[in-house]
Amino acid sequence: MNRKFDSILGTVGSTPVVRINHLAPPDVHLFVKIEAFNPLGSVKDRLALGVIEDAERRGTLKPGQTVIEATSGNTGIGLAMVCAQKGYPLVVTMAESFSIERRKLMRFLGAKVVLTPAAERGVGMVKKAVELAETHGWFLTRQFDNEANADMHSRTTAREIIEAFAGEPLDYWVTGFGTGGTLKGVGRVLAKERPETKVVVCEPADAPMLASGTKQQQRGDGTFEASHPSWKPHPIQGWSPDFIPKLAADAADMGIIDRVVTVTGPDAMHWSRELAKKEGILVGTSSGATFAGALQLCREAAKGSTVLCMLPDTGERYLSTPLFADIQVDMTAEELEIASSTPSARFASVAS
């Protein structure tokens, strides 16, 4: 990255592939692609740049026009960066159940955040975004069904993976899905250029929508009548809204998914914490979930297999969530004992 860039947007992509040294089974080569290295800390920076620049090329986004999207946070944060740099006002709709860090970050970047009731879930925030776009003439980016989303991943994420493993084996590629853009965009390139690489998709054990095989009818405006019948609330933010996005459904219909594995919320949080403590990799709950799925696969894979796992975002936007619930602000008893082992700046007891 020792180059000069015309703007922050030039730094999107080119994220590192890193070997897992302590948490991987001894007979499997496990790597992760760390999307937190994107400028605003998640894989959704790629999506945001891709859909805005595609709309500019097509002329469907006019100079100064307001952009709107429904988001659990990361897409909105990425869009806020892109819109700030390019001069577009941004409004996002977001269910009130998502972490407050996300809405603060979007507002800090100049976006307006319209909250929707938690009970209406993802379906509700998408419906609100569509209503606002139609009422005010705003540009709706349609992250869940916009082909520019998947195209961006075919042009960038997939090419980075192909180059990283050029001349080397890559037996499995493991990902979750939010919009399905990463899944479809990378999966179709691997199917064409590395057909020996199996595509493994992870989803919450409480929301096994792809695993159920039950399709979901989407309206012409991109909204859904109701939540998918196999969906239940889950703590893996950014993963699996309460509907199957068109891009994810496309990947399933194209036959590029070789296997679906399910992950529990506790496992997702456990492995996010383990990645931080044992590998020094700070990621969020969805990354922990994808990593948990990759470890399931590693335990069953043939000796010598090579596995690449996507890690979608950073852990810093989960500080107010259960992921950090056990992390204290004040000193623990052990820390107090360390502090008291020398005479300066002693505390009488642990602060409550």
Alpha-carbon distance between the two ends: 44 Å
Proportion of residues in β-strands: 5-15%
Number of helices: 12
Shape: globular
Low-confidence stretches: none
Structural class: alpha/beta
Instruction: Give the C-alpha Rg.
Output: 21 Å
**Count of discrete structural domains:** 2
Helix share, percent: 25-40%
**Order of the strands making up the biggest sheet:** 1-2-10-7-8-9
User: What string, H for helix and E for strand, traces the elements in order?
Assistant: EEHEHEHEHEHHEHEHHEHHEH
Secondary structure tally: strands? 10
Largest sheet: 6 strands, mixed
> If classified by CATH, what would the architecture of the largest domain be?
3-Layer(aba) Sandwich
Q: What is the fold-level CATH name, i.e. the topology of the largest domain?
A: Rossmann fold
Oligomeric state of this protein: single chain
Mean of pLDDT: 94
